[in-house]
Amino acid sequence: MKIIAVHEHPHLLDSAVQFFWEKWGTEENFTFYQDCMIHSGKTEDGIPRFYAAILDE
């Protein structure tokens, strides 16, 4: 297993958004999660950041 920063692996963005949203989101906030993940890592203070554990690729 390895821990990755989602913003460093854009090819996993859609899967990550879907996973995080299904676990903690509501019907109204899918685009909020998507926007946060798209823009994570692009701010000077580094917030927000999303990480994922990847098992067997």
Give the tags.
globular; 39% helix; two-stranded antiparallel sheet; alpha+beta; 14% strand; 57 residues
Topology:
Elements: E1 2-5, H1 13-24, H2 30-39, E2 51-54
Antiparallel strand pairs: 1-2
Helix pairs in contact: 1-2
Structural summary, described in words:
With 57 residues, this protein is of the alpha+beta class. It has one domain. The protein has 2 helices and 2 strands. It is globular.
Structural class: alpha+beta
Strand order of the largest sheet: 1-2
Please estimate the helix content: 25-40%
Beta-strand fraction estimate: 5-15%
Task: Report on the biggest sheet.
Answer: 2 strands, antiparallel
Large-scale geometry: globular
What are the segments in which pLDDT stays under 50 over at least 5 consecutive residues? none
Kindly, what is the distance between the CA atoms of the first and last residues, rounded to a whole number of angstroms?
8 Å
What's the rounded overall pLDDT mean? 87
Radius of gyration from the alpha-carbon trace, in angstroms: 11 Å
Tell me briefly what this model is.
It contains two helices and two strands; from the N terminus they run βααβ. The chain starts with a strand and ends with a strand. 39% of the residues lie in helices and 14% in strands.
